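Handout, page 2. Input:
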Amino acid sequence: IEDCSFNGCMSLTSIMLPDRLLSMGEGCFCHCESLISITLPEDLTEIGYACFSGCISLTSITLPKGLIKLGYYCFSECAFTSITLSEGITEFYSDIFRNCIFLKSIIFQSVNPPSIYNYNIGYDFDFDDIIAYVPKESLNLYKEKLGSRFKEILPI
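Output:
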């Protein structure tokens, strides 16, 4: 999907994306404030910068297992209470959840903890109130690598 394809489309409430879609461009659904449902294809590997930023009605999203890259601010201001990150995500910037004020938990499916980078110091998302759920066999590894970033790290 091209950059900014549906940017600001206020009447869009749901969409099912086609199979074989590999990437979503920058801001392609940015500020679609009425978007409540989106179906992502299993072949999707990349969600671009600010792709869903400002989708204030989007309360949940199912990320495909093959997803490996999340762009800066891609979910900022979404209304998620929880999100599951697929095992292919090995790194992301903390600002992908910027202003996600309802987010209370992140479920990590990978046995290897991802690297979480700060993109814009002072504007990054604070994980202090977030509970991370991780694979049981990786609990100690996650606590060692990410323990100081989250409120608590618990087994799935």
